[in-house]
Amino acid sequence: MAMAIDQESSSNDLTVVLSSKERNFLICRNGEQVTYSSITGKIVGLYFSGSWCGPCRQFTPKLVEAYESLYPKGDFEIVFISSDKDDESFNEYFGKMSWLAVPFSDAEARKNLKQLFKVRAIPHLVILDGTGKVLSNEGVKLIKHFGPEAYPFTSERINYLRQEEERAKENQSLRSLLVYGSRDFLISNEENKISMSELEGKTVCLYFGTSTHRGCKNFTLKLAEVYEKLKGKNFEIVLISLDEKYEDFKESFEAMPWLALPFKDKNCERLIQYFEHKLLPQLVVLSPDGKTLQQNAVKFVEEYGDEAFPFTQEKLATLANLKKKKLEAQTLESILVTADQDFVISNGGLKVPVHKLVGNNIVLYFAASWSLPCREFLPKLITAYHEIKKKDGTFEVIFISSDQDEPSFNNIFSSMPWLALPFDDERRSFLSRRFNIVGIPVAIAISPNGSTVNTQVRQLLETHSAGAYPFTEEHIKKLQQQLDKNTTGWPKKDTNEIHNEHELALIHQQVYLCSGCKEMGYGWAFFCKRCDYGLHPKCAPKQEEMN
Fold first, then answer.
1. Is the pLDDT of residue 496 over 80?
2. pTM of the predicted model, to two decimals?
3. CB-hemisphere CA count at 13 Å for 296?
4. What strand order describes the sheet that includes 452-454?
5. Concatenated DSSP letters for 189-243?
6. CA–CA distance, 338 with 318 (Å, rounded to integer)
7. CA terminus-to-terminus distance, the chain
8. Do the beta carbons of residue 283 and residue 264 sit within 8 Å?
9. Confidence (pLDDT) at 547
10. Which of 96, 101, 489, 539 lies 20 to 30 Å from 37, alpha-carbon distance?
11. pLDDT tens, 117-138?
12. What angle separates helix 139-146 from helix 155-170, to the nearest 10 degrees?
């Protein structure tokens, strides 16, 4: 895990940096004034945070725990610089902290500190040594990853901890990962203590999840099916819960047939950092000797189910080869016909047999009514559908819904002029796994012989509208060449009266949000990378003159 230690050549005089003309003190949470002599010569963390910020509220308890561990050393202090909007919010939030703060009333000093230390987002923790020299601008990452062990936050200390982590990974075992302090057991959903010896000789999956996450809810159902098939094959799952409330943890864990670390066990946070957790859900696979086989096997479980066991590279390579052969032999009927279902429906409820669609150009449209990007894209797709249909009567779209209830499905489907899979049809999850659908909307083109033509149809329609049809590689290449040709003569840089800080460069972007019309863009854009500000060429100034 890369965490840069920013060693500044200059030092900051905290008595100057933290003070103002009218103030030469800091405050405690009870309002008591404290002179700067109390922090002179100490390692000081400047904590930029705000009560309205969710990540701040999540991080502050971790910082409080680290602070209470380090405070007895006598040479460590934290100063809170608030980003709250009003005094009441500041007082309530500061009341949960054990350290000092710049008074909320001194807005000018708080603003100057944010500018001096280039604070772009919160939470942000700057660590200064006893001379005011910056040890690290990444104190939040250090505390999250190492906790109080990061003290005294020098590059030597951080490098040593990283080396220790690498050594620990080389000697990794189930016990080194799951045993913590005096706790050497796991728990069942009936709250019974299960000895670690029960895991010996088993392939173990560590399931990082939370009960409130939609993706985790859906994946848990799939994982339970796999667990039921594998539980007699030296296989076990251990839940690493990220729930904040015990009630949420208890309710969700009661429905899970596997084991777990106790709620809010301190080892949960350690494992989150150890496996560099970034996405939910995450499923780490450990071999019987405790070594990591897969950092995240969620996609393998979703795609292959119990066939992915034991999750070795050899087994997954074999499955990938089988998948490749299936894709090469793909037909429309092979992906849309099952033993129970062989039809799609119109929004009038008419059943259309799949075999009648064989030989057509088909687009599979994955979307849902609850998704704002889907609702924004739908009118564009409807317009393109009608235009393409005029040119090619065999063209058709099939809607694959991710809606959670039938009324929502019926509501959005009633506005669509094409076909769909019925609500709650088992083929929906199969197709999502088959085409590795992660985010929606997604539109995938299927050729008349049933092979996959293009998985980026949404982006192509956003850029070229109906002109992108029939979505073949050869056709898209011609469109791109024409688009590149059209940019000849455009200025390589431009200016904009709204964004006048920097020049906008003409570059090719895979995807961006136009800051002018607020619609998604693909391809050429006038863009400022420093500010993440981009404009469609049609929204850029002087476009009429360029044309």
1. no
2. 0.59
3. 14
4. 351-353, 343-346, 419-420, 396-401, 362-367, 442-446, 452-454
5. TT--EEEGGGGTT-EEEEEEE-TT-HHHHHHHHHHHHHHHHHTTSSEEEEEEE--
6. 24
7. 48
8. no
9. 39
10. 96
11. 999 899 999 999 999 899 999 9
12. 40
